[in-house]
Write a structure and sequence with these properties.
220 residues, alpha+beta, eight-stranded antiparallel β-sheet, 8 strands, 12% helix, globular, disordered C terminus
Length: 220
């Protein structure tokens, strides 16, 4: 990685804070995905916060399972889950160990490695659509369950790292309800995005599923 103040990896103390502090502070940071083909760098433009045991929208709300175990571990690790039988989503664990919370990375602007991202997202009509939504972001970066538990604070050679980047100014950050979350957590304004960014995904309210349909799993 090229040296410079905006290229410094974020350390574990950044993530060892309440999730509602970490989530908006991630906007403008740079996610680096190291692959055998070369690195892909992405500037984060949209995220969602999930507050674990206190949040009905979180995967950790009902306690620890084999699937969500990473959320109960130390902060600064990746939690990757599989949904709809076809998509992966990437989250970053926050807060003290044993108190699960995380930030879903919803969207970003690809800064470097466009060719590799387009190979994984051939249906993207332009660069803004490469990572416009959590499943698209994970697909463009080649993220799957094999990266679950990855330490994003392990250094520049890690499969995933978060660089300081250029944090969004508070006046640029908007918030609103999380996408697709129903029930008690439907109105929490815990989705954060950078105003005017074309890579931000459209908001969709929760749609109740019919009894015999596949249950949707959202958030972290």
């Amino acid at each position: 990685m090229t040296a410079g103040p905006d290229r410094e990896p974020l350390d574990r103390s950044f993530f060892d804070r309440p999730v509602l502090e970490v989530a908006p502070d991630l906007l403008g940071r740079v996610l680096v995905r190291s692959t055998p083909d070369g690195p892909i760098e992405l500037r984060l433009t949209e995220v969602e916060a999930y507050a674990g045991l206190a949040d009905p929208g979180s995967h950790a709300y009902r306690g620890r399972t084999e699937r969500n175990a990473v959320m109960f571990g130390p902060p600064g690790h990746a939690y990757v889950y599989f949904t709809y039988g076809m998509w992966h989503c990437l989250n970053l664990v926050c807060g003290p160990e044993g108190h699960p919370s995380g930030v879903l990375l919803r969207a970003g602007e690809v800064l470097h490695g466009h060719a590799w991202a387009h190979q994984r997202r051939p249906k993207a009509r332009n660069d803004h659509e490469l990572a416009k939504g959590p499943a698209r972001l994970a697909t463009a970066l080649g993220v799957d369950r094999r990266l679950d538990g990855t330490d994003v604070c392990a250094g520049p050679d890690a499969a995933l790292a978060i660089l300081t980047g250029h944090p969004a100014r508070p006046a640029q950050v908007l918030s609103g309800p999380r996408t697709g979350v129903g029930g008690e957590g439907a109105t929490h304004p815990w989705r954060f995005w950078i105003d005017g960014e074309p890579s931000v995904s459209p908001y969709r309210a929760h749609t109740p599923r019919r009894r015999n349909s596949t249950r949707r799993q959202v958030g972290t």
